[in-house]
Specification:
The chain is mainly α and about 170 residues long. It has 6 helices and no strands. The radius of gyration is 28 Å and the shape is elongated.
């Protein structure tokens, strides 16, 4: 059973490493975080007063990027949030910044996944499938080991029966 837990832990580490490898090919500061998720929600929900408050506390938030290289200005364009676009530009965001695919916030297709994110998703899916396959192999091996243990116990029981019969004969 310890081997299964160790294997599972190693597979989880491998999954994280493969995702990290794909994202490490870009700017390492581009990360999906609670901050980027929060900003995305505020901007796409047109909560512009909250956006102003967040930027007043930390103006650098105007330039944070998610793993695909997109950030607040992309989300404001996507949400057609003109006020947020102006707020972000005033805070230092630049409409000429490029995402992981080399596109600016003005030249992407609404709702379309970036090529980078498609690659990242494919890498994650492949790693998950490999992990699933390995876990199934491990479970099968563990099951086979359990069956072998059960057979050994049955063999021991048979030996006890033979001993009982020997005792009766005496």
């Amino acid at each position: 059973m310890r081997l299964s837990s160790l294997s599972l832990a190693l597979f989880a580490v491998a999954l994280l490493a493969s995702c990290a490898y794909v994202s490490a090919q870009l700017d390492p500061s581009w990360q999906d975080t609670e901050t980027t998720t929060g900003l995305f929600g505020v901007i796409t929900n047109h909560e512009n007063d909250k956006l102003k408050t967040m930027l007043a506390e930390d103006e650098d938030l105007a330039s944070v990027r998610a793993a695909d290289g997109r950030g607040p200005l992309w989300w404001a364009h996507e949400a057609n949030n003109e006020e947020a676009i102006e707020i972000l530009k005033n805070a230092g965001a630049d409409e000429n910044w490029q995402d992981a695919d080399g596109k600016t916030c003005k030249d992407f297709t609404h709702g379309e996944m970036t090529e980078y994110m498609k690659k990242l998703d494919a890498a994650r899916a492949a790693q998950e499938e490999e992990n699933r396959r390995r876990l199934q192999e491990q479970a099968s091996m563990d099951h086979d080991d359990d069956e072998d243990s059960d057979e050994d116990e049955d063999d021991d029981d048979d030996d006890d029966d033979d001993d009982d019969e020997d005792e009766k004969k005496k």
